[in-house]
Amino acid sequence: MKIVNQKLSKTLASETVTFTATPNKGDEMVPDSIIIHFTAGRSAESSVAWFKDPEAKASAHIVIDREGKITQMVEFNRKAWHAGVSRWADRSGFNNFSIGIELDNPGRLTKVNDRFYSWFGKEYPKEVVVEAKHKHEKSISFWHNFTEKQIDSCFRICKLLMETYSIKDILGHDDIAPFRKNDPGPAFPMESFRAKLFGRQDDTADIYKITENNTNLRTGAGTTFESIAKLPLNTEVEFVKSKSGWFYVYVLKTPAASGEPLYGWVSGSLLKKLK
Ligand SMILES: [Zn+2]
Question: Which member of 15, 45, 55, 102 is catalytic?
Fold first, then answer.
């Protein structure tokens, strides 16, 4: 594949890349982030049909089916309507600067007597069910897996996008809208996916700075948790993980006299990404 005039174009006979236009798109933008989703739909075809419908008021740049086949619906330099109300660190409104990639997947499954069903009543065999805890939830639940072909297509698109645009971040819809959305959820290997694309051993090398003086570093993700330290303006911290809009970070320059490694939770809204 390659990108020609803001659209994917195939370079190998084995690739399936088609463009299906949708009226559900905004004006021009410069993409600097990628948001990964699942469709929560019945099939890639039904999701593409939905994203074409003006009633849907929703769309994505890319839809990938379970065979890894790719449908592009919006040029990469135009806004698609995939993110909704969204925030990550000091940035909000991700439709304005992000590319949305949707993977065909029904999402969370319900277990009834050892059988697994999607929200629309379809049954799935045990072999395609992932049992895992969503990072924003307390207990284990059931999710439809993503296929290798799907993840591979997604990876190749992200790599191309990173070569073409100045992409700073790849995030899940559940990262930027943690109270509304649970996609792509725990069945998507987000950490290793990001690590491979950004050429890192792990995904912990994102550096943020504190944007407000005396920001509380807390023992948990919320203002009810105890404050461990007050971080001065511009303190640099390393991102470890996020939960419901809060970031668990490692403080790179310890402000206190103690030289102990300092870890804790900071409200994501008080952080700005450095690299
Ligand atoms: Zn989504």
Answer: 102
